[in-house]
Amino acid sequence: xxLQRLNQxxxxxxxxxxxxxxxxxxxxxxxxxxxxxxxxxxxxxxKTRAVKALADCxxxxxxxIQFTPDxxxxxxxxxxxxxxxxxxxxxxxxxLFHHLVLADEINRAPAKVQSALLEAMAEGQxxxxxxxxxxxxxxxxxxxxxxxxxxxxxxxxEAQLDRFLLHLxxxxxxxxxxLQILALSRNEAQHAVISVPEPLTEAEVFAAREAALKxxxxxxxxxxxxxxxxxxxxxxxxxxxxxxxxxxxxxxxASIALERCARARAFLHGRDYVAPEDxxxxxxxxxxxxxxxxxxxxxxxxxxxxxxxxxVKLVAVP
Length: 318
Fold this sequence. Notes:
Residues 36-166 form the ATPase AAA-3 domain. With 318 residues, the protein is an alpha/beta fold.
């Protein structure tokens, strides 16, 4: 039943966000795998639209935060306000106290603001003064970055990037999809409505997460995940070229993320077991923000996706 509802939501998202299947599947994978995602791509690729569309399909609150250089941590977490009539301080919750949060252009805010958001993502709570406040049990953050404009930005350190379950990289749609986008825009201007599926309740989301955790992962698949991770840490065992490209490998969070995302993908595709293609499909989005390229790789114009593709090619499939 949960899979059928999720399939309806996936079809709705694909109608609302044309030409971005990676984004649609990434959103649902993050929702089922209980993690947060970072989306990088040029402006106008429906990143905000996708999260709003997903929010329409879930029985929860949505809030968008536009990150700017003058943003303060209290603008996210909330703050204590003095009530003169009672003579006491009262906590006023900030925009993080929503179920789905869009952190738009996260790299435009200074480090303190980024840290406040990442604490919320990692701990499921925020701290104001001496007190901590729990966030909603269903809490999903989608952060965006614009790769075109880097002036006035504060890049996230690798240690903070590691907190994101997935890092999606988007590109422009092709000509055929662009025509479909024009048609969709005309239909919306004429108030043609695409029917929204019945929203998922929190209980249904948690039930889907439990079902995904029960997807069978064979010991050979576990070893395959570990082998992919170890290839980033000990690349010389596999290939001299790979060793020259990689400066730093991934953390144990990558192993956990590969397993959770592979299970979620298998669940979304209607299988009760994890196949090698599930691990290979999620590997780029899981590893992209966790590996650190060497100076040689950057000088040669080698991308992280090329490195990940080489790792997947070199590591033997069980």
